[in-house]
Description:
Layout: H1 2-26, H2 30-58, H3 62-90, H4 93-99
Helix pairs in contact: 1-2, 2-3
Transmembrane segments: 6-22, 34-53, 59-81
Organism: Planococcus shixiaomingii
InterPro entries: YtpI
Amino acid sequence: MLVFLSVILITLSFAVYFYYKTKQFRTSLPIRKKWYTSMASVALGSFVMFFGINQLLLFHTVVTYIIAGIFVILGLGLIVYNFKAAKHYKQFLAEEARLNK
């Protein structure tokens, strides 16, 4: 059951990543583009983290624990860093939209 849930979360995070990357390429506003990039990176970080968790659930070897641990830590780092960046850019989105009407 946990493996099935992790596969769903992996698929969902990849779909969100693809959504924000598409939005990033379609916009011409620079701050909005950076915000979409940050949100896409949050989704990519969750993809990496959930993939590491999935590997921990599937295989039980020392090598898997080491590599999956690296994936989980790297994914968490991407999520935290890019969430802070997205929060920073979000405060300028309304002003940018107002200036570029």
